[in-house]
UniProtKB/TrEMBL annotation:
Gene3D superfamilies: N-(1-d-carboxylethyl)-l-norvaline Dehydrogenase, domain 2, NAD(P)-binding Rossmann-like Domain. PANTHER family: CYTOKINE-LIKE NUCLEAR FACTOR N-PAC (PTHR43580:SF2), OXIDOREDUCTASE GLYR1-RELATED (PTHR43580). Residues 2-157 form the 6-phosphogluconate dehydrogenase NADP-binding domain. It comes from the Bacteria. GO terms for molecular function: NAD binding; NADP binding; oxidoreductase activity. This is Oxidoreductase. Pfam families: NAD_binding_11 (PF14833), NAD_binding_2 (PF03446). The keyword NAD applies. Keywords: NAD, Oxidoreductase. GO terms for biological process: organic acid catabolic process. Residues 163-279 form the 3-hydroxyisobutyrate dehydrogenase-like NAD-binding domain. InterPro entries: 3-OH-isobutyrate_DH-rel_CS, 6-PGluconate_DH-like_C_sf, 6PGD_dom2, 6PGDH_NADP-bd, HIBADH-like_NADP-bd, HIBADH-related, HIBADH-related_NP60_sf, NAD(P)-bd_dom_sf.
Length: 284
């Protein structure tokens, strides 16, 4: 299959290359220059318009503004091949997902929201968890491609906004877990408990799950090399706050954790891993 790919950051490059390894022909474009052989079985296009000649196009850009600039402001969709399905895998706002769905429907272009859970190393290992939402026929067409880049696909419904609501809510929960570990470590360290011993206790008993184990390990090691930058995590908490407005009630935990992450960003940690929210409290 001819697959277009827009956005070759660490996540996008890993996903595009895995699709190339599976035998698909990849035509990719990135906003900043990349090497011509960056994508396995791929070619780097001179413009994003070229990419729209593919059967399926994936977009992995950083936020609403980047997608709006590349896809909408330049009227990129006018170059779409008949029958194209556009898959947006980035974490974007719920409202913008709805806007994109309406624009694609008006042009007769398939649209699937498919944000993912997983850091770049998970993308490289083709073990992403994918939340997909959109018309059933469009999802069915791209599911074999999802099977190449991910470990499991969770179909959230036909309204593309449901996938994005699930993603921002999930990222909110990860941020809450990291702040919970930091605050618990602060209490126990104040009473002479070594940080690693405490977090090992928690992950081997009450909280034996991937988020606590992975981010707990980073907190213990003081390893804040960015896999997912804190600045992007802060963006996702803003999206969660905006999505939460539909609930009509205060979300106090979200507000508190967003405030802590903002403080960490203000302290110069925005380019570190988002688990550096813990370093802001613990000092290392």
């Amino acid at each position: 299959m001819d697959i277009g790919f827009v956005g070759l950051g660490r996540m996008g490059l890993a996903m595009a290359s895995n699709l190339g390894r599976a035998g698909h022909r990849i035509l990719a474009w990135n906003r900043s220059p990349v090497a011509g052989d960056a994508v396995v079985n791929g070619t780097i296009a001179a413009s994003p318009e070229e990419v729209l000649g593919a059967d399926v196009v994936f977009t992995m850009l950083s936020d609403d503004a980047a997608i709006r600039e590349v896809v909408l402001d330049g009227d990129l969709l006018s170059h779409a091949r008949e029958g194209l399905v556009h898959v947006v895998t980035a974490t974007i706002s719920v409202d913008f997902a709805g806007e994109l769905a309406d624009i694609h429907a008006a042009r007769g272009i398939g649209y699937v929201s498919a944000p993912v859970f997983g850091r770049p190393d998970v993308a490289e290992a083709a073990q992403l968890n994918i939340m997909a939402a959109g018309p059933a026929e469009a999802i069915a067409r791209v599911t074999p491609l999802f099977d190449v880049i991910g470990r499991r696909v969770f179909v959230m419904g036909e309204d593309p906004r449901t996938a994005n609501a699930s993603k921002v809510a999930g990222n909110m929960m990860i941020a809450m877990a990291m702040e919970a570990m930091a605050e618990a470590a602060a209490i126990t360290e104040a009473h002479g408990v070594e940080r690693g011993a405490f977090l090992d206790l928690m992950t081997q008993t009450l909280f034996g799950c991937r988020v606590y184990e992975n981010y707990g390990g980073k907190i213990v090691a003081g390893d804040y090399e960015p896999g997912f930058r804190l600045a992007l995590g802060l963006k996702d908490l803003r999206l969660a706050s905006e999505a939460g407005e539909a609930f009509g009630k205060a979300l106090p935990m979200l507000g508190a954790v967003r405030g802590q992450m903002q403080a960490a960003a203000d302290a110069g940690r925005g380019e570190q891993d988002w688990s550096a929210i813990a370093a802001h409290l613990l000092g290392s």
